[in-house]
Known about the structure:
The protein is built from two helices and five strands. The mean pLDDT is 95. It is α+β, with helices and mostly antiparallel strands. The protein has a single domain (7-107), classed as HIT-like (HIT family, subunit A, 2-Layer Sandwich). It has helices at 7-12, 60-76, and strands spanning 20-23, 27-31, 39-45, 84-87, 103-107. The N and C termini lie far apart (32 Å). Strand 1 (20-23) and strand 2 form a beta hairpin. A five-stranded antiparallel β-sheet has the order 1-2-3-5-4, with helices on one face.
Amino acid sequence: MTDNDCLFCRIIAGEVPADFVHQDDLVVAIRDVSPKAPTHLLLMPREHVVSAAELTDAHRPMLGRLFAVAADLARNADIAERGFRLVTNAGPDAGQSVPHLHFHLLGGRSMGWPPG
């Protein structure tokens, strides 16, 4: 299921160019066009889900795959050992700017806390 007005659905469909670092049947990952860390990737499901607020038990396989891909990408980027941040925003007050579930994989520098 896709949304023709969704930027990430259009990227996944190949209508908008992006630097893909991973693609499989459930999940894609691209380089962020405005990185906030030396490693900044966006991981998203192929299925159009607006945000984490819409997730149900039916999404377990996709989420499991997404987290496994994130761990693999972190290892490949040599940031897994020192640490990385995997974050999603749900809704405008949380800072979600594209209404398609996505996770930011950030690493390669020290992260502060709290993040907001």
